[in-house]
Amino acid sequence: MEETAMRIALDAMGGDYAPHEVVKGAVEAAREEDGDTIILVGQPDRIEAELAGWDLDGLEFPIIAAQQVIDMDEPAAQAIRQKPDSSIVVATQLVKEGQADAVVTAGSTGAAMVAATLLLGRIAGILRPAAAIPYFGIQQETIFLDAGLNVDCKPQYLVQFALMGSIYAQKVMGVENPAVALLSNGTEDSKGNELGRATFPLLRESGLNFIGNVEGLDIPQGRANVIVCDGFTGNVVLKLTEGLIQVLLDLVEAEVGAKLPPAAAATFQPALAELRRRTDYAEIGGAPALGVNGVCVIGHGRSRARAVKSAIAQARLAVRNDLVGAIKEGWQAVAEKTGIEG
Amino acid sequence: MEETAMRIALDAMGGDYAPHEVVKGAVEAAREEDGDTIILVGQPDRIEAELAGWDLDGLEFPIIAAQQVIDMDEPAAQAIRQKPDSSIVVATQLVKEGQADAVVTAGSTGAAMVAATLLLGRIAGILRPAAAIPYFGIQQETIFLDAGLNVDCKPQYLVQFALMGSIYAQKVMGVENPAVALLSNGTEDSKGNELGRATFPLLRESGLNFIGNVEGLDIPQGRANVIVCDGFTGNVVLKLTEGLIQVLLDLVEAEVGAKLPPAAAATFQPALAELRRRTDYAEIGGAPALGVNGVCVIGHGRSRARAVKSAIAQARLAVRNDLVGAIKEGWQAVAEKTGIEG
Question: Strands A226-228 and A180-183, how do they pair?
Fold first, then answer.
C-alpha cells in the first residue's frame, strides 16, 4: 500500500500526566516516523512550554488551540456539550473536518467516545460503538470487547463487536484469520446467559472464524484473538484483571521477595518491576473505539509517554490499513449472512 | 452454645483424587474434633482399603454404601436421576433423613447442587439457591455469589444472595456486620446494568449493611465481605481469577525467577510454591450451597486432603451456628423491608 503523510490529532491535555507525558510521547513517536504529522491540541502556552524542554531536531508540531479541559470524572455527555472548546472535542473535530486522519487521547474514555460518536458518527450499519482492550500485555494477540460502553446489549451488538474486533485484530494487530469467541460460563455450545445463547447461533452463521464459547480462564490463556461480551461483563473483566494483577504482584513482593537472601534483591526487584510495567494496563497503549466513522484511540488515564507513543502507533496502523473501510465492508458480509439489519 | 456430637456425611467418591485424598482429609479432620462423626459414603471396599492405610488410633468412621459414582462432566440433572445409588445422592439423603447434619463433597458442583435442591428442598421463601466462593485465600473475609448456578437472575434473587452471603459471613467466617456490595461497572450509585440498577434500591431498603456498588478491582482488594452478582458474571469472575493467578505466577516464575542468582532459587521456589498453594482455589475448602434446606459444602474437584478437611470444618461451623435457621429468620426480616415475596 502506498504510504502517504498522515496527520494525527493528539489531545495534549488528556490524562493524569498531561501535558508533560503526552507531549513527550508525541516527540518520541515523531522521531520514529518523521513523515507523519502529530498535531498537538490544547492550551498553546502549556504545550509550547513542554515542547521547549525537548531537542526537536527539525521535528515540527502544529498546535491547535483548545482552552478547555475535560476532567476524568466529569459526566461525559454533559462535559462534551458544555465544553465545545475542550481539547478532546477540538481534536475530534479535526478528524471530522478532514484536517486529521485520527484522534488519540488519554483523557476520559466516556468523553472521548461521546465526542467520537457525536462528531464522527457511526459507521453505516453499526448499531453501537465499542471499546476493545488488548489483554494487558499478557496475551499479545488477544483483545476483548466491549470493555464497558454498552452495559446492556442485544445479540446483534455482540455480533458487530465480533466483526469489529476481528477486523481490528487483522488490520492493527496483524493476526491472520483471528479466532473469535463468545465469553460464557462454560465452553459447551449450550452454555451462556440469555444474551449469549441468542448470540451463539448468529456468530455461527456470521462467516467469522468463530470458535465457540470460552470461559473466564481462557482470556489470560489467550485461547482466542477476539473475545466478545457485553460491556458490563467486559468492565468487570477489565477491572478485575487490573486489580488482581496488582494484588497478586504485591503478594509476590511481600511473600516471595521478602524471603530471598539480600543479595538476590538486586535482581528480584527490577525483574518484578519490569513484569509490573509489562502487565500494567496504563502502559499498553490504547483502546480503539470501534464502530465510529473515523480512527479514535483512547489511552488509559494514567498513560505515560511510552503508552502515548504506543497509542499513536496503533492509530497510524489503523489509518494506514483503512480500519474504518474494512469494518464497513466486513459488516456488509456479516449482515448478509446473519440477516441482522444495521 | 451447647455443643452436641455432629454427624457429617462425606462423599468419599467425589473429586479427582477420591477416595484417597478424601479419606485422608476425613481422618485428619476427625483427629482434630473427635466428638464428631464423619460418615464415609461410597464403595465400601475402596473406602476400607483407604482406611487401612491410616493409624486410626481409636477413631471410627461409619461407612454407608453407595455403589455408583457421578463423573465430573456428567450433565447434573440427568446424572442425579439416573444414579440414585451414587455417593452424592446417598450422602445428601442422609441429611434429608436426619441421619447426618451436613453433607460435604468434592464431586461435581452441578450434581451436588441438584441433589441438595431436590432432596433437601429450598429454605422457605428462598427462590434460588446459590454457590458462594471465598476469594481465593487472597481476601480471607470476602466471598462472592452467585458463582455460577443462576446465569439469568432477577433483582429479588440478588437480594436473597446478599442476605444469604451476609449470614454465611457472620456464622461461618466470623465477620460481624458484614459489608455487602453489588458488583457493578463503577462505584457510583447510578452505575450497573439493567439487573443491577433494579437491584440497588432493594438492597438499600434491605436492612443489610449495604455499602453500594463495587467494581471488579474491589474483589481482590477485599472492599466488601459479600459481593453479589448474577451467576454468569460470577462464573466469569471465578474462572478469570483462577486462570489469571496461574498465568501470572507462571510469568513470575519464568521472568523473575529465571533472572535470580542460582543460590536464590532455593528460597524462591518454595516461597512461590507456597503462594501458589495459598491462592489455589482447590486448596481453599469449599463453596457453601446457600438457600438449600440443609448444610451442603462443595469442594473443588481438585480437592486434596487439606481442602477436604477445610470443607468439613466449614460444614461443622455452619451446623453449629445454625446457618440454615439464621438464613430463614434473616430472610423474614429482609422480605418485610423490601416487600419481596419468596
Answer: parallel
